[in-house]
Amino acid sequence: MKYSLGIDAGGTYTDAVILRDSDGEIVDTMKARTTYPDLLIGIQNALDGLDQSYLENVSLVSVSTTLATNTILEGTGYPVALIMIGEADIPADTSIKYSIHIEGGHTPAGNEKYPLDIEAAESFIKKVRDKVSAFAVSSYFSIRNPEHELRVKELITNLTGLPVVCGHELSQSLGAYERGVTAYLNAQLLPISTRFMDTVESEIRRRGIDAKMMMLKCDGSIVGIKEALKHPIESIFTGPAASLVGASYLAKRKNCIVVDVGGTSTDVAMIIDGFPEITDEGAIVGGWHTKVEAIRMETSALGGDSHVWTKNEKLYIGPKRVIPLCVAATQYPEIRYKLSKNQHIMRAQLGENIQPAKLFMKTNHEPIELTEKEEELLARIDESPRTINEIYWEKRSFPSPMTMTSLIQKRLVQAIGFTPTDALHVLGIYNEWDTEASILGATLIGNFCFRDAYQISSYVKEEFTKNIVLNVLSYVFEDIPASEIRKALDNNYYGQFKVNVPVVLLGGPVSAYVNDIGKYMDAEIILPKYSKVGNAVGALAGRGLKRIEILIRPNYNKVAAHNLKTDSVSAFYPGGKEIFSSYDEAIEFSKEIGTKLIMEYMKDAELDEGEISIDIKRKDLTFPDSNALIETRLILTGIADLRNRNDDIKKPNTP
To answer: What residue numbers bound the domain in which 625 lies?
Structure first.
């Protein structure tokens, strides 16, 4: 009997699930703590907790991960240089350290607008090649003609041998700068994603498992690992995508809203007819507007591991993530003693990093390009947890909050602190880890805002609940400002919001919030069995999906009312352009090339073993005062079903 293995490496937990191929039933699950900076340990712990007899018969492994998302959110990607070509300027306030704008680019018809300034490109490449790990290139209207991007790519390859990502390779949407950002982020993620998947694959092979390796994309589809590693940017938001697909599978609902409460964030999205709702805009992550096709999502940087801290007698939750005290104390029992000593911190010194219940420890990442201040502070931090007071006594000075934040962003220091997960331990709702450490932490924080440990934890739990509800309602009532919804939640009105589709909850201790959510909104709330490993289920339940859009435009030589003459017809498809004498020829060619591109993708993505269906939709745009065509867009959607595990979920003609 054959089985499939799903692995989800999240910001807090690494989950594993085994499905039986014959009927899609879940036969085993395991949840382990994600380990930083070495993710392999968490993956090994998850796999070790499974029944090994099932693993011996696994024929497919599919992985989802929040690694790409968290890397962008935390600003810990590798250094990359961006080259923009043509009329798309780089904003003056960009945080991209190495970038240049050079002459070149094309017209909407795909003709060269300005000659490419190849000398300027060469000078820049030589200047920064020893400072970056990859290059990104985006040219004006490269979606109509990628020639200038490809010439610069060839030059970079010859001069440096470093990876190069072009904007036209990732998106066919307008917006040269946004395509450039997408390529830039993709280049940042290449070494990180490659190292992660090499880690997973080598561990699978080490265990003697001979299985096909797949990965979940942010639109909820799955793809072969080799294809996935070409475009790691498409793995951003795979956490929510896995949640959606997994929740639909577990709850047996083809339409539902899904709330995924993770360690780093709370994400809300919707699945319609078994497929995630896709946004018309590119995915936005960490303030970057990309051209990555992704699910429509409401998200907040508030999760189970969000840092709870105090200043001016007020409590704040997040947005930074820390290791919960209860979790850290299980590995470092001395934390309880350190917390019991009651650190000496003045109220005026309090800030996000200067906290009575916060500790810091070194990671084993190699330091790169440290400032003098960073080197000095890093030398005062040990490989075991240290309190602010202990760091202070090294030099009799408090650490600079900005320098500490920089070390954390560079993954050289890991912070430990009080979190919503600790609050649940204090309240006795969740007791998986060290409750005593949580109580000590809450007490210390309470000393600075005149509340006891129970009051602190109750407040955190209530705020966390409101945040979940606010995310759901902001998603459903997208035209109502979130501030107005929050105002309604904070006041005792004689009424509440109603949600007309089921709300499915996923995540570790999410069961702690089920009853409280019902106080703020009227909805069918579902907590499915195996909800704690829903993302790992989603990694397996996805299907192969590829969308191709082709633009067909007549080339008019005279435009006047009811007097339009066509010289030729152009068809623009991913990676090329063809000119035809008639519209019908252009349409037929576009269908053929679109189908060919989909089938090539399915083969490269190792999805051609399943049943593949291709749906073609045509959208015509005409002049207002006549039936003459302005343009035609052909949208081809290919779906590959590797298995049909959930027959009650309708398969749509077009997702």
So the answer is: 544-641
